[in-house]
Give the backbone structure.
Amino acid sequence: MRKHSTRRLLAGLGVAAALVTTAAAPVAAAPEPADVRPAVEFGLYANSVLLAPGGPAKHVTLTALADRPLPEFTVTVDRSGVDGFAEVTVPTADCTADGAVLTCTVNNEEEPVMSLLHLAVTLRPDAGAGQRGELAFTVAERGGGRAGYRSTVAVGEGVDLVSPAQVALSGRPGATVPAPLTVTNQGEQAVGQLVLYVVGNYGLAPATRYRNCEYATGGPHHSTPVMFACTFERTLAPGETVRVDTGFGFALPGDSWAPNTQHGSALWLTPADWAALRSQHAPVDRIGENGTDGVLGLGPVTRSQQRERAAGDPQSDVDPEDNATAITITVQGDQRADAVAAGARVDTSVGRTVPVTVGFTNAGPAALATWGTRGFYTMVDVAVPEGTTAVRASEHCRTDDDQGEEPGRPGGRRYTCYLPGVLRVGERAEFPFSLRVDTAGRHTSTVELLHLGVADEFARDLDPSNDTATIVVDTTGPDGGDDGDGGDGGGLPITGAPVATIAGVGLALVVVGAVIFLVTRRRGTGG
């Protein structure tokens, strides 16, 4: 088993870390030769930021909205609209300053990305709540393309929300686990309204869907499919601590892997900080639909604590490092799964291109790819049969000699394919290829399942004997159907019982970068 190369691939795919891309950011394409490259048609987006006196610096990222990265460009940043109260710098680019105007020239060809420029914004010592202005961006691309955009820098009132560093829960598959999440106003100003933002593994499914909460159809990464946010129309007085209603909790799915440990994070925010977070890389108003099962409240509360805050400047947390709670749910019991490899067979003739779809089925009883410390993540090692060429590969497969290219690159001899979401009992993960038959004969190769866990002793399924299947491309028998030269029809589907097919990734949602903040952040055990 190719553990080392597979683990490198796992890390590169962002499976071990929640690295995400925005749905608005198009897939990068290889640059054309400089002498024939046309102008790139593109738009721009830059997030707005809200800072508070005494709070941390914020960052503005300028992003190209195009069908490919800009190869070489010049960015002009006019800071005059904010220069009176904020300092704006570019830590990583080659820029020159002429008064309040920055000019940065960037060559993006060696490492093409959609992000064009990262700016650090800090408040000047005399900045005060209520001040605001705009940063004006102009981008000129080498081929002649040009676009502009404006983002806002504003100064709000500083507040300080604090929550416990962690909460430990437990339950069996199918159980509802109460979650006593709390928050304290540690600052001197009353906090008008609160937002609770939750991201987590499969086991953190919300037990109740409240009317004052928005529920996304997926999370920011396939390891964190749960994402929702609740808004509380309530003032939190200085020194006051509240908790969510006792009915709030998580419904561990009945097909949860056990024993296991599921993880998530709960982040408390002001409404203005929540708006900034969800619109960090794209303009987003909502993350999903509201629930219908009543209103989630905060309590217990005495009347003397309800010191209402008059409407005023937006508020921002001056210490966002202490307002998130790490959630751990220990899943009790003994429930694993059997992943069954599926190969394919096709009868064809030399010179034709035929579809071959491989993958695996979840024979249950637990769901696969639910993550946690005691489950495993299944990947598929696909060997391309000798005598054939992969002219098309699944978008969820990478070649062994991948040097950072996009998935789905044709021409490889061996691919490692990854699952883009949870695979429930009876569902099948499918990875389609198109193989061109180059030589006559019967060509065979293998499909092997690779199970990776946090610890190797957990990286096994219920029946390892069915973890290998065969691909057969045969030109010695009857023709496999008129698929047309270079066509994509004909061939036989993946072996195994007919089951539902896993859909595409569909999880590159909003709040880009939010889960990085939640998962990778380190903090002490105090709070």
About this structure: The first strand starts at residue 42 and ends at 46. The mean pLDDT is 82. The CA atoms of residues 388 and 437 lie 5 Å apart. The chain has three helices and 35 strands.
